[in-house]
Amino acid sequence: MPPGYYNATETTWGGNPIRGEDGRMHLVVAQMENHCNVRTMWQTNSYIARTVSTTGSPLGPYQFAERLIPTFSHNPMVRRAKDGTFVIFFIGGWPIPAEHVAHCNVTAAAAPAAAPVGASAAAAAAAAAAPMLKGAGKETNLSSYPNCSAWRWPKSCGPAMPGPNGDGCGPAFATAGYPDCATTPEYACNDGCGIAVAYSKSIQGPWAISRVRIVDQFQSDDLYCAHTNPSPLFLPNGSVILAFGAGSCSCAQQYNASDGGASCGQPPTGDPTTEAYWSTQMGSHVGLAISHRGFLGPWHLISRHSILRNPLTGGAHFCEDPFIWKSSRGWHLLVHNLQPLRLNSSGKPEWPNSEAHQSAYAYSEDGLQWHLSSTSPYNCTVTYSDGSRREARNCGNRPQLLFGDDGQPEILIDGVHGDCDAHGSGCSGAAQPGKHLTPEAWTLFRPLSQTAKTGADI
């Protein structure tokens, strides 16, 4: 088996390992229930799983142990607080009824799922009964807000946003608080966002869950809604910095009220090196928040604007999946890139594709003023132990680093796709990472060379 976590029958989508109180390495990861793919089913079928390294090495390979947090929970990042508490920041935290969770077919080539490691029937039952967030928080009556919806909420719609966290995100199924969900396709009210935090004294739980809400969110023009993909940084003084994605419901600030919002989300036209080209797009930007009282908040914005500016347009950069860390040289950020960063030799924008320009890197001396590099920090080429190479498609997703005892990064972790089409089909065949995958995505670990670590001193 390769490094990382490859489940033969269930798709996984990135996570990070941590040493448990038992001394073993545990990978906390997003996994899709009922053999479904991540491309189209993550908003209904994603749950957070715990896996265990079968070798004791941080590289793994990892084997499924148990379900930690049921659907809907996605894109976890686990840390350990100074007092030893295990803390998981993630998207979601509300329950999805069993009848709304999709069931997908298993291909004939699929191998049986790996047997749980150290899991028991009691542990599985406890995970299924995890204390998910209840209630709708702000039950905004959307019928009072023409042209506004849970997944498209320009700032002109006002601060009374729906969702458990009041940021436009919420349960996928129809409730009294979300009347438009009853008349739109199922799951339309789940924008795949809304941040929660789970915490426990043991990596195996039980877990308590709390909402993460940014108190002054509506003071921003591009960070006020659709909070997602949290990346926490625990500081020595007890404060916690949170990098997060936001703004997928804001239409990039350029809401055209005269057309009833019809321009929001329409295909862009014109020159992609100008900010006007992106004005109709409901993309994600990166923001920073801080809690001076630990991981339970309260949270306040560090900056009222997204922190990354695109070097071509000068406007807010479109990206997602931030990973933040700090070194002796300053602050650093990896993101999944969604927008051209530079021009090619012909003077045309170099668009991110499935194998190139997928990742982006930014740095800051003080955590306030950020500089976005026009050079991607890594590519999608994976070299196997036999010397062969394959392209790990869409390898910029869910970037995370695992650091050694010396504070230097040792392992790069991403969620990657196999040789599948845009909807996760065409994945039959030998269940081998980098070739035809039975699950259409898996969690890739790549060790970093000592030369690169020392030379970069990142």
Structure description:
The chain is 5% helix and 31% strand. It has 3 helices and 22 strands. It has helices spanning 38-45, 121-128, 450-456; strands spanning 4-5, 12-19, 25-32, 46-53, 62-69, 73-80, 86-92, 195-200, 208-211, 228-234, 240-246, 285-291, 300-301, 319-327, 330-337, 359-364, 371-372, 381-383, 389-391, 393-403, 409-417, 441-447. The protein has a 4-stranded antiparallel sheet, with no helix packed on it. Strand 10 (228-234) and strand 11 form a beta hairpin.
Could you give the topology of this structure?
Elements (H helix, E strand, L loop, with lengths): L3 E2 L6 E8 L5 E8 L5 H8 E8 L8 E8 L3 E8 L5 E7 L28 H8 L66 E6 L7 E4 L16 E7 L5 E7 L38 E7 L8 E2 L17 E9 L2 E8 L21 E6 L6 E2 L8 E3 L5 E3 L1 E11 L5 E9 L23 E7 L2 H7 L2
Helix share, percent: under 10%
How far is the first residue's CA from the last residue's CA?
30 Å
Number of domains: 1
* Number of separate helices: 3
Tell the overall outline. Answer: globular
Describe the biggest sheet? 4 strands, antiparallel
User: CATH topology, anyone?
Assistant: Tachylectin-2, Chain A
What percent strand?
Answer: 25-35%
Which stretches are low in confidence, meaning pLDDT under 50 for 5 or more residues running? Answer: 107-127, 134-139, 172-188, 252-260, 420-438, 451-458
